[in-house]
Amino acid sequence: MPGIGQSGETPAPHPDSLGVIISMPPALAAELHAWRESYAGPGSSSVPAHITLVSGRARRSWTEAAEHVRSVARNGSPFTISLRGTGTFAPVSPVVFLNLEQGAGKCRELHNELLAGPVEHLLDFEFQPHLTVAHDLDPEVMARAEAEMAGFAAELEVTSIGLYDYARGGWSLHEELVLGGGQG
């Protein structure tokens, strides 16, 4: 559902930003939020736990790119993700994450389908589906996060993807798109 500006009108999407993510169900999101804050401190986890499919921009027109994301969602289907254990991108990038034991292949398929249209991914690293637990913290805290979360396990059914826009200094949901259906 589009955000509403102070004037009551829907703000125009930022032309140079477009993100597509998988959000966590509320109970899992709350649990992950607590874990993430235990590593980075209260109030530090301003971005909810999620799995990024694309962090980038529209190649030409935001409207055209958003319609492509909608088309990918309509042609998709729900799938299951199993989060199991931890990994890290260190020393390349200071990130500790939860592994996708099941569902990583489907995330890669969605990522590739999204990039087959007018959407550009703007990261310096090869796409690897993951859920960030700790990022850019002291090495001791990063090691603690990796060790403490190593036994973590959760499953979720992915039924939608979120189309995001970067506006007013942060990412905001533009639309939640049901996989295999209409808007959710």
Give an overview in words.
By secondary structure, the protein is α+β, with helices and mostly antiparallel strands. The chain has a domain at about 20-80 and about 105-125 and about 155-180: Cyclic Phosphodiesterase, Chain: A (Alpha-Beta Complex), CATH 3.90.1140.10. It has 4 helices and 9 strands, in the order E-H-E-H-E-E-H-E-E-H-E-E-E. Strands 5-2-1-8-9 form a 5-stranded antiparallel beta sheet. A 4-stranded antiparallel beta sheet has the order 6-4-3-7, sandwiched between helices. It starts with 17 loop residues before the first strand and ends in a 6-residue tail after the last strand. Residues about 1-10 have low confidence and may be disordered.
